[in-house]
Please model this.
Amino acid sequence: MSRRDREPRESQDGWIRSILKEGPAWIIALTGVVGLGIGTGVGYGASKAQTSGPRPTVTVTVTRPNPQESTPQPTTDGAQAVRNSGSLTLNFNESADLDSKQSNWDAPNPSQGADITNYEGFDATNSGASLARLGDLPATYRGCMATSDYIPVAQGLPLDQVSQGMNFCVKTDRGRFSLLHVTKVVSDPNKPDYIAFKVTTWEHSTNQ
Model:
């Protein structure tokens, strides 16, 4: 065999002996290369799948407030607060405190601050209260404020001049306004006199 023929054979034998001697290192190197290729392919595929999929849809819901819930509705008499309201009956020689929060207005004999009385007619008391007949003015808080017909004490009305359905305003000794609507009057020599009202007293106005 010639030298030229021996050289490839010897080179091939050396390469095989090198693989057998350093086999584990070659196997590890080849495994890493294959794993890198597989990992790159998997990662690329996953990334492509994620970026090529449909984008999420964001929905924004705007709720407008209900005007009827957020805007307070005005009440009668300019939202003037009512201090007390109810029925009141004054027999002869009885009085009532219209500033009271009691259901009977501290009748028949308030310990202090009486505003109206049924003594020699329907009248304001001498505590500083005043009385006015509304006439054509509205039977409201504003009507009581608007009237200028308040009369001083000791100039009250005899019961025979008071009739059912009349409306009176009283400015109390503490400066509040009360509306008195006459519901019944008894003025009979043979029966005890009395006068009955539907009463509303308002708190002080914030505009005064």
Q: What stands out?
A: The longest helix spans residues 23-52. The chain has two domains: 3-52, 81-202. Strands lie at 82-91, 95-96, 116-118, 122-124, 130-133, 167-171, 177-186, 194-202.
